[in-house]
Design brief:
two-stranded antiparallel sheet; mainly beta; single chain; 4-stranded antiparallel β-sheet
Length: 95
C-alpha cells in the first residue's frame, strides 16, 4: 500500500506509524481538581470511538520527513481517502 505524503510523495505504508484517532485534546493546563474534570480528561485521552467507516487519524512519517499527518481512512476497506499535513497553526476544531 502506498500513502501520498504531502512532502515526500508516494511512499510505502511501512514508513509510517499510526498514532490513533484524530481528536482535539482537552486543555491539560485547565482545572483538573474536580472528579468530573479528571474523568472527562481521562475519557478524552484513553477512550476511542473505533467506528466502522470513514475515520480521521494522526499518522507520523517516521522513516521519511518526520512529519505528522492527518489521514482520512475507511476502516472497513483501509482505503486512504485523504492525507493532509498538520501545521502548527491548525485549529483544534479541524482535528
Amino acid at each position: 500500500m502506498l500513502i501520498n505524503c504531502p512532502y515526500c510523495g508516494l511512499r510505502d505504508l511501512t514508513e509510517f506509524v499510526v498514532a490513533g484517532e484524530a481528536v482535539a485534546r482537552p486543555d491539560a493546563h485547565g482545572d483538573l481538581d474536580g472528579a468530573d474534570a479528571r474523568a472527562a480528561f481521562a475519557d478524552a485521552v484513553y477512550l476511542r470511538e473505533n467506528p466502522a467507516g470513514v475515520h480521521r487519524e494522526h499518522w507520523f512519517h517516521a522513516a521519511g520527513c518526520q512529519s505528522w499527518l492527518l489521514v482520512e481512512r475507511d476502516t472497513r476497506t483501509h482505503e486512504i481517502i485523504r492525507v493532509d499535513a498538520i501545521s502548527a497553526g491548525m485549529a483544534r476544531e479541524t482535528l
